[in-house]
Amino acid sequence: MRALYDVAAPAKLNLFLHVTGRREDGYHLLQSAFMLLDWHDSLDFELHPGGAVSREDLTVPLPEDDLTVRAARALQQATGCTAGAHIRITKRLPAEAGMGGGSSDAASCLLALNRLWGLGLALPALEAIGLRLGADVPFFLRGRNAWVEGIGEQITPIELPPARFVVVKPPRGLKTADIFRHPALQRDSIGARITGFAADPWRFGHNSLEPVARLLNPEVGEALDFLASQGLAARMTGSGSAVYALLPPDKLPGQVLAQMPARWAGAGWVVRECGNLDVHPLVGWASSDDSVGS
Questions:
Q1: Is 12 marked active-site?
Q2: Catalytic site residue 289?
Q3: From the candidates 41, 66, 105, 136, which is the catalytic residue?
């Protein structure tokens, strides 16, 4: 195997996000439900001898030492692998959106290079590497919609019915660290139960980060207000700045997009309709997972 092309790295939405506490080391304790979307980045991987890792950005430029490069180097370090790779990224997911784009790219990189380099690492070993890169990486490695707790490492698979959503990403993003260090952040949400979520997954709970996000970036409130004007119940995903709403069956494809404010056109706003996924396209790529997608 010399190359892998069009490797998908899908986005996620947080169906709710509760901050339930804070550990002594400063990490926040969370509860959330993560849902995969059919909106994704694409990555190409070509085998290179000599151990060098290089990256080519085919759309928007990324930071030199982004999570994808860091994931490749972390995999080399963990295994002693002497092979290298050239990675090409077609970036479609917006940055600083709360949709897990960087973490998803990193997870797909670990899965692809584990295969390309013939390492044969099982999923737990990849998760251990991934968790050091970002709290969301293990979720994308598992590749199934999930109830997530702790700092992101406690993952329980869940099943969700098929549904359509509209996502609005304002021009300005939000940095996760800015929200979590803000003094107005609510850190004492009451712990939720997965049974309560399962009874009504689309309307369950809230996003504890949303009030602070609206303070830091008023465009978040503008996006929420727009979706509310369309008769939709909207909330922010992750640490934002993207917001989303469930599309009811009576909303025709493109109907909400057609109502987008004229001033948003050409101003960096992203409005997109998407559907959810049952499983990640790369499920089965780790040696311990022999389920679908292998």
A1: yes
A2: no
A3: 136
**DSSP secondary structure of the chain:** --EEEEEEEEEEEEEEEEEEEE-TTSPEEEEEEEEEEEEEEEEEEEEETTS-EEEEESSS---TT-HHHHHHHHHHHHHT---EEEEEEE--SPSSSSS-HHHHHHHHHHHHHHHHTT----HHHHHHHHHHH-TTHHHHHHTB-EEEEETTTEEEE------EEEEEE-SS---HHHHHT-TT----PPPP-HHHHHHSTTT-S-BTTHHHHHHH-HHHHHHHHHHHHTT--EEE-TTSS-EEEEEPTTS-TTTTGGGS-GGGTTTT-EEEEEEB-SB-TTTT-STT--STT-
CA-wise closest residue to 12 among 193, 244, 259 = 244
Active-site choice (12, 44, 105, 169): 12
| DSSP result, 147-184 | EEEETTTEEEE------EEEEEE-SS---HHHHHT-TT
Encode pLDDT of 97-122 as tens digits: 999 999 999 999 999 999 999 999 99
Half-sphere exposure of 258 (CA within 13 A, CB side): 5
Span of 15-29, 91-105, 161-175, 193-207 with lowest mean pLDDT: 15-29
For 102, other C-beta atoms within 10 Å of its C-beta total 25
